[in-house]
């Protein structure tokens, strides 16, 4: 967890022009697409604001998803009823501005997403992510995610994983 004072909340009218995480597609998404997706109810975007500067230090998006049980790792699927799919919350994007990388903010944003999924009034079995590369997949595996059978860059963590951490 981070020691820096951040405030995590819904994306508003914050200045996004100087956000730079080192991935041009993730930077461009925050600057040009995130508000449109929120308006269209395709996803919700949460930002971590550095309390000292008011800068966006990081962000993630969250949306509803379903996951075919046949794609799940055996250790996850083996405990489920015989349904074709299970409900999930998808972290579509997660990025940390380069000025704030290395202070634990990525893990804090993951826990924030899990907390929101746990508090949801609809059923959520797991968090799922589509890692953009092997480095991102390593980050998610470090935080308790396991790869789907069909795609090592698509990962899942049962929500109970986070319930234990948050209680």
TrEMBL record:
Chemical reaction(s) catalysed: glycyl-tRNA(Gly) + acetyl-CoA = N-acetylglycyl-tRNA(Gly) + CoA + H(+)
UniProt similarity note: Belongs to the acetyltransferase family. GNAT subfamily.
Organism: Thiorhodococcus drewsii AZ1
Keyword Transferase among record annotations: yes
Keyword tags: Acyltransferase, Repressor, Toxin-antitoxin system, Transferase
Record domain N-acetyltransferase: where: 25-167
Name of the protein: GCN5-related N-acetyltransferase
Alphabetical list of InterPro entries matching this protein: Acyl_CoA_acyltransferase, GNAT_dom
GO molecular function: acyltransferase activity, transferring groups other than amino-acyl groups
Signal peptide start and end residues: none
